[in-house]
TrEMBL record:
PROSITE patterns: HTH_TETR_1, HTH_TETR_2
Domain HTH tetR-type intervals: 3-63
Organism listed in the record: Neobacillus cucumis
Name of this protein: TetR family transcriptional regulator
InterPro entries, per the entry: DNA-bd_HTH_TetR-type_CS (IPR023772), Homeodomain-like_sf (IPR009057), HTH-type_Tx_Regulator (IPR050624), HTH_TetR (IPR001647), Tet_transcr_reg_TetR-rel_C_sf (IPR036271)
Amino acid sequence: MAPDRRKMIVEAATKSFSLFGYKATTMDQVARLANVGKGTIYTFFKNKEELFEEIISTLVKEMIAEAESVIESDLTFAENVHLALSRLLAFRSQHQLMIKLVQEEKEMGTIAVSEMLRHVEDEIIAYLREKMETAISKGAIPPRDIEITSFLLLKMYIALVSDWERNHEPLSSEQIAEIMKVFLLSGPAN
């Protein structure tokens, strides 16, 4: 069976971006890691940016699948939001590529990385928005400005699980779930 060169290139690029970051990754490096000629990469991808977009797109799909895997029909919407966000943030903090990209954005401010991280955030917010629309239509939560609430849910969750812990005792999952529940029930109205 012939090797899937496209897959080998994507895996090699993912490895390179994870180890060296976006800025330091070159197409020559990717070609060496994939054990293909540099020209082979260009038969599949126009440039490094397109290759990076492919990898991030796949990563976002994996993140959403992770979130979906913890949703339970017998739990409340607030409990499921907590589980899904927790899984998304765990995935993000345990996935080597995400760790490297967050580090590169913070240390170097690489524009392409900032744009991709914003894309990941936008996808998570879109996912939350879709879940909120469903919950509102079922009467599980009161109607509200879905866009603002989705954004605030993500930012509030990040703040509670990471920022809060810099100067305070970590909150338990139950405490975070309760805060999210209160926010969802009395958060921004339309």
